[in-house]
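DOMAIN: structural biology
WANTED: fold as tokens
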Amino acid sequence: MSLQRRDFLKLTAASGLAFSTSSLLSACYAAPAVAPRRIGPNDKLNVLSIGVIGSIGAADRKQVASHPRVNIAGLCDVDSKYLEKAGNEHPDAFREKDYREVFDKHADKFDAVIVSTPDHTHCAIDTLALSKGKHTYGQKPLVQQLEEVTLLRNATEANPTLSTQMGNQRMQSPGRRAAVHVLKTGTLGKCKEIFVTTGSGLKGGGGYFNNRELLPTEAPPAHLDWDLWQSGVQPLIEYRPKIAPLKWRALWDYGTGGLGDWGCHLLDVVFYAYPELTSPTAVIAEVKDPPEGMFHARTCKTVLTYDTSTDAFADKTVKVHYSDEGQIATNEELNLSADVKSTKDKNQTCFVCEGGTLILTAGGKLEIWRDGKNEDWKQLEGMPDFQGFNHWHEWINTALGEHNPDLHWSPFGVGLKITEGALLSVKATMYPGKELKWDSKKLEFTNHAEATKTIVKRDYRKGF
């Protein structure tokens, strides 16, 4: 960690920028671009896995490792049991529990990083990896704070030669890519309104969520470094079962609730179909149970407003309705007659256009409704034949210099637009019923000083 602290002081002194010395995020934000190692045609990409098992770490690592030109060179996890288990699968990989120590001691041993850790750690690790010239695969949502959208965006733009990708494997589905094509080509005319629903959320708990259940504090298990798991969050809290390793998503300081959990799998099509959309200009949330104590809100409906500048939209603004707990849009909202029996999936994205309605499930089932009829999208004129591909492998191929823009979906530039919309929905639940006017460049809610002070950023613990 001492090397990073020295790097931080040198960087801030050289740039003349004033940053709090309590935040390594600032050092990453200010860091100059570092060229990645040139990889020869017969070389392998050496990859570091951070968060080796958890909820998605094992799947990410195994998918990446299955690429013929990948070597898992390093493993990092705050849980020694996880580290040992993954180490048995990759006996030649170095092992560390602290990602900061990895970059201090082993930076010359890997070219790329998989970041499969809890939400609150994403930005610090992603920005550090980019600043060190490492290709980066970051799990969703890419960041946990609105300020971090800017931090990671600047780090990404400072390192344009690096391959980046958000964990958005559902774009492998032909139906999801076909939906982008239908909307982008204007097959259904101008877009009027968008309805997005996830079944994810705090209600009922589930495998990933703690439904506001706080168990008594106790000593953390010996195999878990609880202090390090909390990373830069302050103040530190005492360990309670059912937070680590899986049920942190419901907690305000660590997760992003159901809306953040599924945003990348549902909002992605919006920004691929309409790349002209940038940051929302306003958000308003309606919730059954507002955030309470350590926990996120329950049962949320939010509306994001985006300014539009092209003929792809029916108006100068478009509203994106984003809700959790399976609160599916009605036929009336989707401009469908009452007798239409469309798909009602708990995870879906719907576009209401002047010439029809598009309904898309997270799994890729696509329906095109025109004049009360469900048309076979595969028979639409000019529809490409969407072939299968491996989401993780395309990130690797790009790092190896074999970039295919038709297959490399959700690099950080797009992933951050998706993340920002989801995060604004999450944070707005703190002020239900109040429309918050958002200025992303100034990082402020122009009509609500208190919201700017409380839900845009956090203070990071010294050393992170």
Remarks:
- The radius of gyration is 22 Å.
- Confidence is low (pLDDT under 50) at residues 1-24, 26-30.
